[in-house]
């Protein structure tokens, strides 16, 4: 019998125990990338299916030393591709310069940071398939006008098409989390560069959603817009009602005002 890794609360570890769901997650991959990186493989519930994919270079990134030792014993064929490191601090180009699919049962406590890192490497990551806390997964995939639509929805949907694939119940984990999980797929769209300054775009989106219950006329008061522009009907909307394209338009209007003031 295989020795189990002890789940560590500080690392947000909840080990998936249902092999059918693990296979379903792996089968959700669509991109034909030469390389795959799995985050937080733990005891390899996804890894056992990933290694069966032909012509793929698979890398595992795992912070937990106990899990790393387990993986080296049970997946010796991957020994050189098991990276004992913190994904959030890793320079992914030291692992591969190739486009890669990112996959994993992502720790809930760092899921947002993982996605911000995906944005940093968006030109190298054509696809992400991952399991998140259901609330987070729904927020990421949410469309304008929905209550779940927020900062990550806008920033990610500027560059990725996002699909909510399926829900996973608590009882298929050890230990079981207190919430349901959701699996989503992010597919890189054709936008190479958004039509505005990316940092200004992030600033405006975050500022708008910091007071998401207010209209833009009020939530963007800290950002200088000419009074004539704030009469535009778009300023009567709340941030969750705006599309990515409308946020880009607002960003350019704001930057133009700053440059000419």
Distance between the termini: 71 Å
Largest sheet: 7 strands, mixed
Structural class: alpha/beta
- Strand and helix order: EHEHEHEEHEHHEEEHHH
Q: From the 3D structure, determine the CATH topology of the largest domain.
A: Rossmann fold
Radius of gyration over C-alpha positions, nearest whole angstrom: 20 Å
Helix fraction bin: 25-40%
Number of discrete helical segments: 9
- CATH architecture designation of the largest domain: 3-Layer(aba) Sandwich
Number of strands: 9
CATH evolutionary superfamily of the largest domain: Vaccinia Virus protein VP39
Shape: elongated
Which spans have pLDDT < 50 for at least 5 consecutive residues?
A: none
Strand order of the largest sheet: 4-3-2-5-6-9-7
Which properties best describe this structure?
261 residues; alpha/beta; single chain; two-stranded antiparallel sheet; 9 strands; Helicase, Ruva Protein, domain 3; 18% strand
Can you tell me about this structure?
- This protein is α/β, with parallel strands linked by helices.
- The protein has two domains: 9-188, Rossmann fold (3-Layer(aba) Sandwich), CATH 3.40.50; 198-260, Orthogonal Bundle (Helicase, Ruva Protein, domain 3).
- The chain has nine helices and nine strands.
- The protein has helices spanning 19-27, 47-50, 65-74, 111-120, 134-141, 151-157, 198-209, 216-219, 244-260; strands spanning 15-16, 35-39, 57-62, 82-84, 100-105, 127-133, 160-168, 173-174, 181-188.
- The strands form two sheets. Strands 4-3-2-5-6-9-7 form a seven-stranded mixed sheet, sandwiched between helices. Strands 1-8 form a two-stranded antiparallel ribbon.
- Strand 5, helix 4 (111-120) and strand 6 (127-133) form a beta-alpha-beta unit.
- The longest helix is centred in the C-terminal third of the chain and has 17 residues, at 244-260.
- The chain is elongated.
- The N and C termini lie far apart (71 Å).
